[in-house]
Amino acid sequence: MANNLSGGFKAYLYRDILIAQRDRGDLSKPLMFFLLVAVMVPLAIAPEANKLSAIAPGLIWILALLATLLSIERLFSEDYADGSLEQLLISPNLLMMPILGKITAHWLVIGLPLTLLSPVIAIWFSLPISAMVPMMLSLALGTAVLSLIGAVGAALTLPRQGGVLLALLVMPLYMPVLIFGSATIQAAVDGLNWLAPLAMLAALLAVAIVLCPLAISAGLRIAKNG
Amino acid sequence: MANNLSGGFKAYLYRDILIAQRDRGDLSKPLMFFLLVAVMVPLAIAPEANKLSAIAPGLIWILALLATLLSIERLFSEDYADGSLEQLLISPNLLMMPILGKITAHWLVIGLPLTLLSPVIAIWFSLPISAMVPMMLSLALGTAVLSLIGAVGAALTLPRQGGVLLALLVMPLYMPVLIFGSATIQAAVDGLNWLAPLAMLAALLAVAIVLCPLAISAGLRIAKNG
Amino acid sequence: MNFNLQWTWFHRLGSPRWFYQQTQRWLPWLAVATLALLVTGLVWGLAIAPPDAKQGNSFRIIYLHVPASVVALAGYYIMAISGAVGLIWRIKLSFMLMRSAAPIGAALTFIALVTGAIWGKPTWGTYWVWDARITSMLILLFLYFGVIALRHTYSNNEAADKAGAVLSLVGMVNVPIIYKSVDWWQTLHQPATIKFTGAPSMHPDMFAPLVVMIIGFYSFYSLALILFARAEILRREYRASWVKQLVSNQPAEK
Amino acid sequence: MTTHTVLKVESLAFERNDAVLFQPVDFELKAGEALQILGVNGSGKTTLFQLLTAILPSSSGQISYREQPLSDCRYEYLSNVLFIGHQSGVKAALTVEENLRWMSPNNTSCEKISAALEVVGLSEYAQIHCANLSAGQKRRVALARLITSQAKLWLLDEPLTSLDKQGVELVERCMNQHLAQGGAILFSSHQDLAQVTTRNYKLEPLMEVA
Amino acid sequence: MTTHTVLKVESLAFERNDAVLFQPVDFELKAGEALQILGVNGSGKTTLFQLLTAILPSSSGQISYREQPLSDCRYEYLSNVLFIGHQSGVKAALTVEENLRWMSPNNTSCEKISAALEVVGLSEYAQIHCANLSAGQKRRVALARLITSQAKLWLLDEPLTSLDKQGVELVERCMNQHLAQGGAILFSSHQDLAQVTTRNYKLEPLMEVA
Ligand code: HEM
Ligand SMILES: Nc1ncnc2c1ncn2[C@@H]1O[C@H](COP(=O)(O)OP(=O)(O)OP(=O)(O)O)[C@@H](O)[C@H]1O
Ligand SMILES: Nc1ncnc2c1ncn2[C@@H]1O[C@H](COP(=O)(O)OP(=O)(O)OP(=O)(O)O)[C@@H](O)[C@H]1O
Ligand SMILES: [Mg+2]
Ligand SMILES: [Mg+2]
After folding, report:
1. Cα–Cα distance for residue pair A135/A157, rounded to 1 Å
2. Where is pLDDT greater, at B78 or A108?
3. How many domains are contained in chain A?
4. Nearest CA to CA, how far is C156 from chain A (Å)?
5. Ligand 5 centroid to residue E100 C-alpha, Å
6. Which residues of chain D have pLDDT under 70?
7. Are E199 and E34 in contact (CB under 8 A)?
8. Domain made up of E1-80+152-210: CATH architecture
9. What is the pLDDT of residues A148-182, one digit of tens each?
């Protein structure tokens, strides 16, 4: 357990993907969830195509954000309840690698499917084809940041695993991702330079990969004390 | 325990509100959550006032729907984990009343605050003042339906308390609420007759109050059989 | 020996008791200074300073709005830094300061938002506009709320303190990012239709009372922080003998 | 005849996914009697309790309460049953006192609640949230129901787990008192009770039939 | 001198919300020795284990591992510790075999895993999801780690809960074997062990100081 070279990264990555797959029967459910929400939007908002395509960049990002929020809560709460978090905390290695493993698993189960599926939603909302590549790139980077930041909130709210409280903590921190993410797509739609906002997302990801695991391991230790 | 005249309605209502208040420190958190999500929308979508007010009726409803989804999952899952669901199942009275008590508590904590807060969001999105009353009425009725339907999903997904799975189950059932709810506001904005869609919401509520508790008690018994 | 000296100094600084007793002496002076500054600033700003050429008298709300905004922003850093000090050196007192800073900062942010909205009505014709600075201020309010809310999650004070500190540190990294991104988002989407009147271009007669008010607000902030922290100390240290002694020494009547 | 039969189980069987769990169960429980269900881990004791509380439906066989089949007297039966299972139903967010009040019959007086807390040794913890209790203390909160409840039939699934020696004695005393008042107890435990006279019933795994 | 001191605890204390939990703890554990922590419910046994695994920070006192303070040899210490607490860390969504593989050292062979499952009596359940196990069976999954682990120091917080009599014997056999191989065991239990020679250490509640 967690004694290999990668210090537990791979072990936790595999385990969490396996559990996600067992729990949901299969991994296609997140995909269906995205499609379903995407279907709902035209129902709630009058479905004239030009109106929809105007708000599409923002909607895809709000969707990504909510999917992360809905699922990130369980990142540590089950491990906390069944005692495996204790086992993680007493592993001799650093906490970083297992934590990054768990977050990567979360991204592979939530962020990646959404990225791969986004072209369908884009066509639905009559987004121009030229915006596809920037959209997918921004989603791939941005959802990873969302998972990382969400994990900080999940660690800090552990003893109460509070859905709404977690949302309150992380949503303000999600703002930059949301802004640069939708700005990337919007810029591509408007034919402007979309590399600049995309680069900002990449920078955010770099910062988050370095800082979030620190905050998370501190948070997990504190939570056990709570 | 649950032996009084109302057959457990009041007992479970009080208990669940007390737990909600303990868990979140206070009951103001759902309010902040709504405000926060409302802030995100203009950030993701270009914030010109006329664009925002065009999509506002739909957005307020999507917001209500998501708040319910985020919170309904815990309606039974904690009781299941700590054994109090077992105690509920072996109470000699009918399950209806305790279940309705729990759902009412959920609505008081989530649906009612959202309804009371919606004028702030409406001003933010530059919705006309004349749409306020229909909006609040539709939210009051509609969020109750959302809680009832959500509870069915929560009962059916119980042993796995699956965030995404639950969303997948209940979202199709939420469609009518979403459609009539946003139609009420849209009609009021457009100066049309908004009583018709509101009446539909009231009818949905009547049906849900009768049918959902049945489905929920069946679901809870099945879940224990696992 | 030097080392020893350093540590007693450090220890004293971190001791809630020392803080409580020291501030007892500063408090009256600070209160008087705050009152003097605020009264001077308000009278000068509201009555003496000339009315604005374009906005008339409605501009006078600036004397509440700008100081509140400035101190609300600074307050976040004060909170986060005291949290960091607590985490690194395990000083209880700085956690207490952090905890006290959150509600004060939230209140000031709220004042900034409300006065801004009130000012917005006569100048822009609307209470709210999705402007970059305004939006980031709103998000700051939620960051404060998050720190306040988190402490109810923990029953153990120490854990609650540390969790709050971690969250405010994460927020501190994010505040500039949020500010920049919101700013950027604005310029990207639409040309700024509304511009703040630049501060340096202000007339000195209007500017001087503003400076007085800003200093007054900082002074008020320190006063509030000390009072909140003192209450927090009593609440947390109620078991300590010096607190018991303090309470029993109080005259019973009144 | 004062010692009437409280609970009678006749050739009760349970199938899950078409697999039968234990050999058909037959026993009778009279008022004033305690019956201990024995069986190795996984033999189906917990499942049996869930059958007896009608949480799970039985596949065949009959359960009768005071000579009546359970289906005919469900309300009366369940009103007279106190069941404490592996999960004790203690809510972490509520205090010890709130939990006990919530789990006790409606008309329980405040004095009775605090007396019960006194007996289980939790008076000092009355205002503490149950999330902050130790494993044994949580168990004691659930067991305080033994004192506040008015049910005649106790169904206790491993009541002794996590309890220290005084705790075990305490439960034994409660049980003896209940029996003396004409109550009946069905319980499972891997430990033998020192002070309570019990009969045993052993759950046997099903032999594979060829 | 072959029986070196494995773990030494000197006037260890713990405060939560400024309340001290137990009287300062002092004990020494040598290789080949088992030490049973005694104490009533809520005396702080679980807390002590969390101090010893550095999950919680201690307020004062010193823990040393092989004569070195814990802070100096954290990696070496934790690599040599096997801790099984109240919550056993068994994941409900995984099968018995997957769980054991996941909880065992990396290089554990398949044969060793199935041998361990054989010993704890779960061979037939290897492919069953742990959500579908009985309380005692779940505990046995966790205890199978006693066989696959290579750690020298075992910290077991109430290993015997939910186990039937054979299960208790099984744990005792594992413990004896571990001791014979020069391992050390610190455990808490409200039951007395029949077959393992143990020393006791009693956690005492703190007297209120005036
Ligand atoms: C709800 C609405 C508003 C909010 C949240 C808000 C927020 C802020 C903030 C955060 C500052 C920055 C202080 C600093 O730079 O450190 C500020 C300064 C200022 N605000 Fe507002 N404001 C609002 C509305 C208004 C309105 C309507 C006006 C007048 C037209 C106004 C005029 C100013 C001026 C003159 C300054 C100082 C000059 C400067 O530093 O640029 N604000 N406000
Ligand atoms: N939800 C379930 N789904 C499928 N099988 C189950 C489920 N719960 C229990 N089982 C199986 O039923 C059998 C009996 O379980 P039960 O919990 O009744 O045993 P028990 O006698 O109470 O054991 P213990 O002494 O460990 O508490 C076990 O073999 C278990 O694997
Ligand atoms: N998270 C917590 N926050 C506050 N107090 C706690 C917390 N966990 C335990 N306690 C308190 O600390 C004391 C010791 O608890 P601990 O779990 O260590 O006891 P224990 O000796 O293991 O008891 P048991 O025999 O019941 O398992 C108890 O009085 C309990 O109320
Ligand atoms: Mg059992
Ligand atoms: Mg314990």
Report:
1. 32
2. A108
3. 1
4. 5
5. 24
6. 1-2, 207-210
7. yes
8. 3-Layer(aba) Sandwich (3.40)
9. 999 999 999 887 766 678 888 999 999 999 989 98
